[in-house]
Design brief:
Length: 64
């Protein structure tokens, strides 16, 4: 194949998107949110601070 025709060539019949870090970031923030919520329900110290961190991270992942 010539280099001139390479731009019109499709190697596969589907569209590949570039990888994104947002699903991993969102899952970590959800894990932080649920873990800190359970810890705050059971009365652990400073669990409310972690709850706010997890909530803030989740809102940032939805906004960005």
């Amino acid at each position: 194949m010539l280099n001139l025709n390479r731009g019109n060539f499709q190697a596969h019949p589907f569209h590949l998107v570039s990888p994104s870090p947002w699903p991993m970031y969102t899952s970590i923030s959800l894990l932080t949110l649920t873990t800190s919520a359970v810890l705050s329900f059971h009365g652990f110290d400073y669990a409310e601070n972690n709850l706010l961190v997890g909530l803030t991270a989740l809102v940032l992942s939805m906004a960005l």
